[in-house]
Write a structure and sequence with these properties.
The chain is α+β, with helices and mostly antiparallel strands and 84 residues long. Helix content is 33%, strand content 35%. It has 2 helices and 4 strands; from the N terminus they run βαββαβ. 24% of the residues are buried.
């Protein structure tokens, strides 16, 4: 089974408090039931199976932009396996 890791940030940044788009994106990954989630002030990481990660990426992009993100940067890595 493939295992994928997605790392992402949302912008614009607000150093005083997390902006609504960052909160929305984090809520998506934290509630997705993925195997591993790390949330930080300048980036977030989530890991899981291919289909689960793909579903989370679609949802976090949609919800972050709907909440005011003007940019979402992400990197996707296959960390194990190559099949479904």
């Amino acid at each position: 089974m493939a295992r994928w890791r997605v790392e992402f940030t949302t912008e614009p940044f607000d150093l005083d408090r997390p902006p609504p788009h960052a909160v929305a994106a984090r809520r998506v990954v934290e509630g997705a039931g993925l195997d591993a989630v790390e949330v930080g002030p300048f980036g977030n990481t989530a890991e899981g199976g291919r289909e689960a990660v793909l579903a989370v990426v679609r949802r976090l992009l949609t919800e972050a932009v709907d909440a005011g993100a003007t940019r979402v940067s992400l990197q996707l890595n296959v960390i194990e396996g190559d099949g479904p």
